[in-house]
Structure formats: C-alpha cells, structure tokens
Design the sequence.
C-alpha cells in the first residue's frame, strides 16, 4: 500500500481523484497523518466521502513543519481544493503580512479583516495558513530572522536586544537599508518557500563579516544558519482535518509549571518545571536568574521568565501552563501564552486551601485538571522547591 512508502518526516500530502486535487494537508509526520485518515474513517461522513473519492496520493517532504505550512498555503491559494474549503469559511483563515514602514513588523490578520485594512500599510501579504498555531509561527519567525518588535530611537534598548534577539533598531545600531537586507529580504524568501536562497545569502554575509573581522556578527549568522537548517517546530501545527471531525479527547503531553522566588536585589530567580501525566521530566527543568527587574515585583520577574522561555524554539511547547499564584499571574501568562491553556494555583485567603484559577473556559481541560488535582499541585510544589533551591545556591556563592 502507498502509505507504507510515506516518510516519517514533515511535509505536505495531496489527495487526488484522477488529476483533480481534492485535499492538501501538512504534517509533522507524513506517515502518521495520512495513516490516520484510513484508520479512523468509519461512520464519519465527510471523511468517508473524501476517502472514497481518492485514487492517488502524492507528497512533498520538507525540512520542517513551518515549511510544510508555507507549501500548503501555496497549494490552497493556487488550487482551492474541494475538501479544504468544504464546510469552512476561508475568510476566517489566517494571513501574515509585513507592515509598510521603515522597519517593517510581522503581523497576523484574518481573511475577513483584509478588506478593512489599508493596503497602503501592507508591504507584503502571505498565506492563507489554515490549522496552525499562528502565534507560534510568528514567534518562530521572529526568533529565526531577528524581526524587530520595537520602535527606533527609544531611550533604552528593548528586551529582545538584551537577550540578543533584536539587531538594535531601538537604539539605532542598524539602519533601514541594512535591516531590509539582513532581516526582511531573507524573511520574504523564506515565506516564499526558498530556504536554500536564504542560507546561501546568509553564508555570503557570514564570510563578509568574518573577512572584516566582525567575528561576533559572523558567529551570530553561523548560529542562525544552523537553526534554519534544523528548525524545531513540530508543535506549532494544530489538529488536522481528521482530528477536528473526530473531536478527540483532550491530549496532554507537556505541562510547564512556573514560580518566582524574590528576595533582595541579587536573589531574584524563576523556575520552570516540566511534567507529563506520569510525573516530572527533570531533564527539561530550567532555572532563570532575573536580569532586567530591579524592584521587588513577582509579576515583572515572571514576565521576563516567560519571554526568555519563548525565545527557545528548540523546547517543545506546553499544552498547559501552570503558575504559582492568582489572577494577576494567570492574566499575565494568558497575554504571553496566547494559544496555550493557562491556570494558576493560589494558596487561598487563609493560606490553607489551594484555589484553582482558570485562564479560559475550556470545559474539557478544566474537567481534566479537576480530575487530576494532585498531579498539578505536585507540579506547583515542585516549581516552588526548584526556585527556592536555586535561590539558596546563588546566596551560597556570594
């Protein structure tokens, strides 16, 4: 059977009836995704109709899931396959666009909002991108291409510059022409599906910087090339067409728990612990020494920790984020982890009762958490223990 020949790697799959393209989809694993159509199709009428019409399957492998999404968008835009648009409102699909300004920014917009957007403000439009975690895609692209989120001529360097994720638009280190050549041009090439050209041009830049003895910049580009060659992004693809129809039960693979231990100027730290349904995954734990917060503010410290965590595109994204705290901590986490279920565990008014504070009304996940309270309380306690231990270690080293 043709499914046996499918690779266990990212790419797009194409379902045909004779020469008509019926459906195109993307996958982090082509073999697993295509197999799911044929193993789960009983009594589900839209899938049954699709499967019965298919008489040919083709696929195109890509290096990463994000490149699969880019290629899928091209096929949808060109062919508008029957089962991609059936029962869907393509006006709700997500597009990316670059703003038309001296230092363009990358933004998202839904199809129905395009008419109301002043076209004079759009430098370039990309998409549509159905069934992806758009905020995750934008985050990955920001990290890969050093896209500026800040404004020029600020009084101080932005947070991204401090963690080496901005080339210095905020403090005038890079001008418009350089920004266009080093950030916007490669980003456009990548979103047009031409990663080879991006890497080739970056290699030329790296050699030029090295020849001019600008070794720090040469090393930055070398690291950028390595990350482009092996993008860590499998978690950013949403449920497939099949999964949407089957409405699978909640699937939780990764829980991240956070806490702040705030004691004096030199001993502010944050912790991230990772659990699955069987308990802690200690190899994935991470600790953070707070760098940018001077005052005693758990919220500001937590904000720094979240932003630093999200710069690590090589870390798997969580299904649930748990914070040790109340509404303020949960509201902050919601603003930053926009596509992840967020909740907090507070000690309650009498400090004796754990209070669960949910960041959304997803009934399935809430029911799951309520049924597994002990697991999440253990994760909260572990985040607290890990932060305290790191703080004590720093104090001993002083």
Sequence:
């Amino acid at each position: 059977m043709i499914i046996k020949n499918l690779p266990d790697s990212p790419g797009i799959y194409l379902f045909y009836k004779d020469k008509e393209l019926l459906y195109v989809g993307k996958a982090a694993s082509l073999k697993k995704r295509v197999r799911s159509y044929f193993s789960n199709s009983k009594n589900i009428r839209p899938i049954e109709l699709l499967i019965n019409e298919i008489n040919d399957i083709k696929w195109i492998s890509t290096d990463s899931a994000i490149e699969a999404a880019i290629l899928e968008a091209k096929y949808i835009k060109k062919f508008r396959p029957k089962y991609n648009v059936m029962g869907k409102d393509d006006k709700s699909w997500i597009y990316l666009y670059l703003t038309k300004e001296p230092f363009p920014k990358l933004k998202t917009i839904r199809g129905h909002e395009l008419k109301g957007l002043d076209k004079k403000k759009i430098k370039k439009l990309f998409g549509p991108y159905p069934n992806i975690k758009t905020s995750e895609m934008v985050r990955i692209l920001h990290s890969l291409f050093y896209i500026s989120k800040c404004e020029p001529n600020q009084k101080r360097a932005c947070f991204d510059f401090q963690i080496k994720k901005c080339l210095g638009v905020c403090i005038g280190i890079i001008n418009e022409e350089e920004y266009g050549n080093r950030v916007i041009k490669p980003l456009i090439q990548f979103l047009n599906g031409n990663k080879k050209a991006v890497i080739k041009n970056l290699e030329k830049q790296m050699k030029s910087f090295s020849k001019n003895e600008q070794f720090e910049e040469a090393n930055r580009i070398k690291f950028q090339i390595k990350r482009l060659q092996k993008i860590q992004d499998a978690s950013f693809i949403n449920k497939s067409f099949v999964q949407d129809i089957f409405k699978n039960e909640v699937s939780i693979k990764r829980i991240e728990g956070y806490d702040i231990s705030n004691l004096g100027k030199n001993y502010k730290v944050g912790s991230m612990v990772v659990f699955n349904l069987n308990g802690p995954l200690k190899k994935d734990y991470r600790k953070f020494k707070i760098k940018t917060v001077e005052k005693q503010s758990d919220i500001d410290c937590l904000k720094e920790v979240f932003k630093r965590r999200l710069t690590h595109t090589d870390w798997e994204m969580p299904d649930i984020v748990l914070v040790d705290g109340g509404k303020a901590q949960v509201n902050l986490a919601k603003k930053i982890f926009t596509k992840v279920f967020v909740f907090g565990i507070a000690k309650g008014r009498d400090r004796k009762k754990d209070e669960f504070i949910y960041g959304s009304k997803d009934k399935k996940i809430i029911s799951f958490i309520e049924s597994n309270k002990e697991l999440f309380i253990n994760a909260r306690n572990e985040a607290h223990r890990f932060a305290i231990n790191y703080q004590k270690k720093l104090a001993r080293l002083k």
Remarks:
- The first strand starts at residue 11 and ends at 17.
